Amino acid sequence: MAASRVTVHFPCPVERVWQTVTDLMNTAWRGDLARVEILNETHFVEHTKSGYATNFTVTACEPLCRWAFTMENGSMSGTWVGIFETAEGGARLTCIETVNAKHWWMRPLVPGYLKRQQKRYLDDLRRELQK
């Protein structure tokens, strides 16, 4: 299992960070996604630009505080937790992600992949919030 915890500060209200992150209808700011398919209130599927699908199940939704879900695709399963806080001069978002590779040969690659994915996501989010 690989785990990553990243905390970032954004110079905008926590409400704006929450709305951007949790709005599955508006994900054009995500550079890695082609689309998001919303199945119901707690289930959605992200489709990457390369056509790979990942299934998500929301496990916690506490507005302006915490959003969490499980995720699974053919290569991995895991969890993601976002903790949203008001901070001096803006908002703080802590992302905690754990990933289990489904194939033994992928396990050494997962930590680096996880770091790259989180960096890309947070870079995309930062650009969106600066608009």
TrEMBL record:
Listed Gene3D superfamilies: 3.30.530.20
The organism's place on the tree of life at top rank: Bacteria
InterPro entries: Polyketide_cyclase/dehydratase, START-like_dom_sf
Pfam families on file: Polyketide_cyc2
Protein name from the UniProt record: Polyketide cyclase / dehydrase and lipid transport
